[in-house]
Amino acid sequence: MSGVKKTRRRGYTRLSPKHQVTIPADAVAEAGLAVGDELRVEIDRAGRIVMSRPQDADRRLRVLDETRGRFTGVWEAGELDRLRDEWR
Fold first, then answer.
1. Residue 23 structural domain
2. Structural domain tally of the chain?
3. Has residue 77 been placed in a domain?
């Protein structure tokens, strides 16, 4: 009987032993979320867990895209590998 899954009510989830939850697919679709989206987790005054998409997430991604590749030529070839070898 231990291999039998318990039926879940629609819109509900359970906390796993690793403190993970699965967000129901309907909720993910309605919120317009996609794989890899960052979510902010907060506790409200009523003790509810509230997950939301950070408002500045798009701005941060745009800044990363704009600065990508700006530091080429700062390090000589192999210099970072030598530094990493020192840490080991």
1. 7-68
2. 1
3. no
Distance CA 78, CA 82 (A): 6
Q: Is residue 85 a part of any domain in this protein? A: no
Report the C-alpha gap between 21 and 27 in whole angstroms.
Answer: 13
CATH number at residue 46: 2.10.260.10
Evaluate whether 71 touches 80 at the Cβ level (below 8 Å): no
Which residues have CB under 8 Å from 31's CB, separation 6+? 53
Q: Are 13 and 22 in contact (CB under 8 A)?
A: yes
User: Per-residue confidence of the chain (88 residues) as pLDDT tens digits?
Assistant: 566 666 778 878 889 999 999 998 889 999 888 898 888 899 999 999 999 887 776 777 777 788 877 777 777 888 888 888 988 7
Q: To which H or E segment does residue 51 belong?
A: strand 49-52
